[in-house]
Design brief:
five-stranded mixed β-sheet, 363 residues, 47% helix, Beta-Lactamase, five-stranded antiparallel β-sheet, alpha+beta
Amino acid sequence: MDIKKILFRTNSIDVEKALPDAVVLCSKDGKIQWVNDVAAEIFETSKMHLLTSNISDFIENPTTLITNSIIMHKPVITKFSGKEIYFDMTAKEIEEGYVLDFRDAVSSYQETVQEEAPEVINREKNNFLLKLSNDLKAPIQSIVGFSQAMADGLGGAMTEQQEKYIRIINKNSADLMYFIGKLLELSQTETQPKVPENKILDITGVVNSVVRFNEQLYKGKEVKITLQQEPGLKKTISSDEDILKNMLQDVLEVILKSVELGEIVVSISTPDEEFIASRSLPIAPYTMISLSSSALLLSENDLECMFDPYKIVDSSNRKNVLRAMVLASVKNLVQSLNGTIWVESQILKSTSFNILIPSNIAG
């Protein structure tokens, strides 16, 4: 096996720079096919033993880590199985499987951990929240449920003052439940990025189903949701329907929770190559979905931390932390589809949330 030819084909791993590191070639199921001498030193075993092993024998959660490195196009922190030893791993998918490059495994361990400490802490925090999700949600769900039952008279007659208090409890607990749900959703998208399961779908049908759902959900508001599509739009694309619906629902919720009347226009278009290049994206077929509202007016201060809840809590814009949490989750979902999202706001005119995703248009 000519490993140099394989490495050259990956484009993202420089042969001259990679070979001093530990390099492993494994199949899609993790069986190790080739290693260099440094890999044997790092994994503290012989090359012969490595070639009869699976990568999961040596590192924790290899499938998730390899997927994350490929999706994010950057190294991920990797841990030895059963040992407190960490290193960077860069993964590249090829026909034969995966090329894994392990860098600074021993000599720069302290430096690597120190540099990546914020990322490690954030990941551990998210894992902690996700593991406690039921403990956080269950008691609040009980408060929401029982307070609603009491407000509906199932617990017996109440005085006017008692009914007022119980409705306040119900509303505040429901708001808290929504907040915790969005916090957990953000933690989920940060810690366990979704791997898209693409299939052929009708993009207008997907968007229309989300629009119809929200028309029923917010039918008490004087808000009209209009779906527009450019003439000649190629409706058939290849993407992940669940991810698309999730992110569109979240963006619509952000708008609908901020306005009481007016029109929300959801438009679908196919941008040209010049527009794609202006967003610093590879030239390829893309679909753009824009959600605009003339009733939602944002200032420059609003836009500054729109997708960053961690910065917004330290700013004067703290009241919008929930919105930033939701939009940060949306951004993570869009990035899982190798797309991008941004917000445009024209003073006294309208605000538009723009989502640009690869369409892989079939036919």
